[in-house]
Design brief:
One of its GO terms (biological process) is tricarboxylic acid cycle. Keywords: Transferase, Tricarboxylic acid cycle. This protein has 18 helices and three strands. The chain has a three-stranded antiparallel β-sheet with strand order 1-2-3. A hairpin with a 2-residue loop joins strand 2 and strand 3. Helix 2 packs parallel to helix 18, helix 7 runs antiparallel to helix 18 and helix 9 runs antiparallel to helix 14. The radius of gyration is 23 Å and the shape is globular. It starts with 30 loop residues before the first strand and ends in a 30-residue tail after the last helix. The structure holds acetyl coenzyme *A. The site of acetyl coenzyme *A (ACO) has 18 residues, from loops. The site of acetyl coenzyme *A has 18 residues, from loops.
């Protein structure tokens, strides 16, 4: 049905693929997922090895540049990211302009976009379209600078979004602390003596950051590439990724899991909730994944971190409800048949809650590390041979055929 567009140029095979279930839009060397086997690798390294032996910032380097750094490469990367974590002082006015109860993801999205206004050298429309060219050291250095800035400033922006809601003054990024530690310091969260973040909790959050750093072409990464394909500056592209991540079917799921557990209330209500899910009256947040058709490998690591964190913070009162929900769902025919298992968000929300983060801050804890994945994919696309092709999918038109305009007074 529908009308064929006039002057249409046929180019290859056109398929209808709602939600991109089967469409590959790029070739990539960054992240490998085998959804049937539950395998996740960053640049070939199994996620389990990275989670136990690497740290977030080293993994960030790996994702972006394709190889584990030498000591001097890591030192230089850490120095550049830390050096660029400081924000222009005017950014404070931006944060103070938000309503007292603004959602932190709305603040983050706006702030990433606003950052672009400070760095004109990152804006191709001001500089000419060949801004980032493979093999041109000056252009690569320019690109790297934007990457350092975005990773460094992500924690500073997130800490500001956190503090502005409490009416507290902003804190400058400290020196001499690791990436995640510095983030906790700026929020003044999970601190022990002398405002130093708890090493156990900082390490737990660092591993969570590492696990969230990339997941190939999820909705937000695809959004970054879609936006980036118009050759816009990386701040604008990252802002759109942040907006996409905000949704409850994506990065908002960790927040949705806790709201779901609170609504269930206690373990005795779990069976009735599961039945409501099966009648499609409710969604089991934190279960299911577009790619994994078995358990998300990150969910096992997150479950272990939860135990470490609870030793320090005490158990979350929702844990028993979550464990029973997990047990019932994993043994229920409805979920087995549909290959629904926990994704990374099922347990991570409980950790964030035990750590005392406000519910609506959970997606920010996903967005901060995911900036790395977005940038790795954006860099890969910008430097691919043959240049960037604008992403412009096609549709199948099913609307009205040609009809003639009727003046307003003549309409029925
Ligand atoms: N609860 C109940 N049923 C579900 C769930 C769920 N969480 N997820 C999928 N299903 C059902 C669907 O109703 C569908 O059933 P049907 O075939 O009888 O119609 C079947 O399982 C297949 O699901 P789809 O919706 O086709 O799977 P899709 O790949 O489109 O969606 C998604 C994946 C969005 C993650 C989905 O599983 C979901 O909504 N999960 C809950 C939200 C969530 O946890 N999101 C986080 C994703 S991970 C991340 O962003 C880090």
């Amino acid at each position: 049905s529908g009308e064929r567009e006039e002057n249409e140029t046929e180019r290859g095979l056109r398929v209808s693929d709602k939600g991109f279930l089967n469409t590959a839009v790029i070739t990539s060397e960054i992240t490998y997922i085998d959804g049937e086997a539950g395998v996740l690798r960053y640049r070939g390294y199994p996620i389990e090895q990275l989670a136990t032996q690497s740290n977030f910032l080293e993994t960030a380097y790996l994702l972006i540049y394709g190889a584990l750094p030498s000591s001097s490469q890591f030192a230089s990367f850490e120095y550049e990211v830390t050096r660029h974590s400081i924000l222009h002082v005017d950014t404070e006015s931006l944060f103070r302009a938000f309503r007292y109860d603004a959602h932190p993801m709305a603040m983050m999205t706006s702030a990433f976009a606003a950052l672009g206004s400070y760095y004109s050298e990152a804006n191709p429309s001001l500089q000419g379209q060949t801004l980032y060219t493979k093999g041109d050291p000056q252009s690569i250095a320019n690109m790297d600078k934007q990457i350092f800035r975005l990773i460094g400033k992500a924690t500073t922006l997130a800490a500001m979004a956190y503090r502005v809601r409490q009416g507290r003054p902003f804190v400058q990024p400290p020196t001499g602390m690791g990436y995640t530690e510095s983030f906790l310091y700026q929020m003044d969260h999970l601190t022990e003596e002398n405002y130093k973040p708890s090493p156990v909790l900082a390490k737990a959050l660092d591993i969570l950051f590492l696990l969230h750093a990339d997941h190939e072409l999820n909705a937000s990464c695809t959004t970054v590439l879609q936006t980036g394909s118009s050759l816009v500056d990386p701040y604008s592209a990252i802002a759109t990724g942040c907006a996409s991540l905000y949704g409850p079917l994506h990065g908002g799921a960790n927040e949705a899991v806790i709201r779901m557990l609170i609504s269930i209330g206690s373990p005795e209500n779990v069976p009735a909730f599961v039945e409501a899910v099966k009648r499609r009256e409710k969604v089991l947040s934190g279960f299911g994944h577009r790619v994994y058709k078995t358990s998300d490998p990150r969910s096992f690591i997150v479950r272990q971190i939860a135990d470490e964190v609870f030793k320090v913070t005490g158990k979350d009162e929702l844990l028993e409800t979550a464990m029973l929900l997990h047990k019932i769902a994993m043994n229920d025919e409805y979920f087995i048949k549909r290959k629904l298992a926990p994704n990374v968000d099922f347990w991570s929300g409980l950790i964030y809650r035990a750590m005392g983060f406000p519910l609506d801050f959970f997606p920010v804890l996903f967005a901060v590390p995911r900036v790395v994945g977005w940038l790795a994919h954006w860099r890969q696309m910008m430097l691919q041979s043959g240049g960037v092709k604008i992403w412009r999918p096609r549709q199948i038109y099913v609307g009205s055929g040609k009809r003639d305009y009727v003046p307003i007074n003549s309409r029925e």
